[in-house]
Amino acid sequence: MKLTINGERHTFEGPLSVASLLVKLGLDPQKLAVEHNLEIVPRSTYDDVPVNDGDTLELVQFVGGG
After folding, report:
1. Are 2 and 54 contacting, i.e. CB atoms less than 8 angstroms apart?
2. How far apart are CA 55 and CA 50, in angstroms?
3. Is residue 4 over pLDDT 80?
4. Which of 3, 13, 20, 40 is most buried by a 10 A CB count?
5. Distances (CA, A) of 31 to 1, 46, 56, 62, 63
6. Exposure pattern of 45-66 as b/e (b: 16+ CB <10 Å)?
7. Local structure of residue 14 (DSSP, 8 states)
8. What distance in Å separates the CA atoms of residue 17 and residue 46, rounded to the nearest whole number?
9. Taking residues 15-44, what's their average pLDDT?
10. pLDDT of residue 66
11. Binning pLDDT at 50, 70 and 90, where does residue 14 land?
């Protein structure tokens, strides 16, 4: 399946959920905000939201600092 993540094209074997995609990318779901096809995905639903061929995701990682 082909996805656009933060403006870049990627190819993955499916099926995937938002949670399983984040694992494949090596990202910590607790430190991310996810927009899937222009809708914010609540963290509590990452396991339930399917990712399909052609979808667009924006991933924003929280970074601490001062």
Report:
1. yes
2. 10
3. yes
4. 3
5. 25, 13, 19, 5, 8
6. ebeebebeeebebebeeeeeee
7. S
8. 7
9. 95
10. 63
11. confident
